Amino acid sequence: MKKIQMVDLKGQYEKIKDEVDSGIRQVIESTSFINGPVVHEFQKDLENYLQVKHVIPCANGTDALQIAMMGLGLKPGDEVITADFTFAATVEVIALLQLTPVLVDVDPVTFNIDTEAIKKAITPKTKAIVPVHLFGQAANMDEIMQLAEAHNLFVIEDNAQAIGADYIFKDGSVKKTGAIGHVGATSFFPSKNLGCYGDGGAIFTNDDELAHTLRGIVNHGMYRRYYHDVVGVNSRLDSIQAVVLKAKLPHLDAYNKARRQAAQKYTNAFTGNDKIITPNYCTACDAQRYDACNTHVFHQYTLRLKGVDRDGLVNFLNEKGIPCGVYYPVPLHQQKAYQDSRYREADFKVTNQLVNEVISLPMHTELDDEQIEFIANTLLKFINQ
Predict the structure, then answer these.
(1) 35 part of a folded domain
(2) 11, exposed or middle or buried, with CB in 10 Å at 0-12, 13-18, 19+?
(3) pLDDT tens digits for 185-197?
(4) Structural domain ending residue among the three candidates 250, 274, 301
(5) Beta strands in 61-145 (DSSP E)
(6) Tens digits of residue pLDDT in 98-109
(7) CA dist., res. 141 & res. 170, Å (int)
(8) Kind and range of the H or E element at 174?
């Protein structure tokens, strides 16, 4: 059996090696390292894939979120509602811009932001909602967009973990996550479903005026060299990373399908065990037919454990050569940097439970049946002992 990895980037690279190597060589020979032709080619390819009018590449996913908020003209003191159960980058940029983060609880089934909690958190100072499509599954965008319209709020989608996922609206229409709100942001960190070989990110919008503003912000506020029309930052996608992304993008649907197939095999192995809650990914579809629906692209395959020594299981799996992850062990409202007297533990019942129950298993495009069977059987051995 091959060595089990949390993410097997080398195996994935071997299948696109010639195209990647050739493209990188061309960039080096051309010396067009920043904003070269391949960056613009990838931008157009991604616009077509997402069916969005504007993609603005940038240096990383955190920058993408920050630039999106800058482009919307949010001001210090404006309140921005987001999920408590997610990676810190989402709230980090809110704080960096001197906006006021408002953390709320998440749904116990999808782990995504709880729309009822959003409703309770809206005040006259609220200006935006940042839903995070966590672990590859779309948040409830029907209700989020309705809330935003009713209260005149911006919606900034954090799509770092769900690129390529579909959202099925109640009326049956379908859009790609990241292209639903007023603006979307994503990361191309190497382990993402669409990842480069360094740092990279992008912002998406269908708003022409906002897109123009964002293009200035990513390039020091310049539209014409040495003329600075807006306050900007230095955040550009380099050409070598664009080569990798351009090579991978045509395979993204296949990559996501492979993840869903691996997820289905995990779930088949765990179904019926009352100590394990497997991912439920789509209220519009049969939750046991992962391969039939693209609403969850399984950036992570995350279980909830009931009555199990989670930390003991982590150690047991590691001893058997199986990597795993706990995303996330501490809720944001308890992190030293983001503690606030406004928060009450009673308002974070689900998040406070999840941080003690979740475990993520290896998930990537190169997982094979032998590895999945070994991982599942090893986990079950510990749980059933």
Answers:
(1) yes
(2) middle
(3) 999 999 999 999 9
(4) 250
(5) 79-83, 100-104, 126-130
(6) 999 999 999 999
(7) 10
(8) strand 174-176
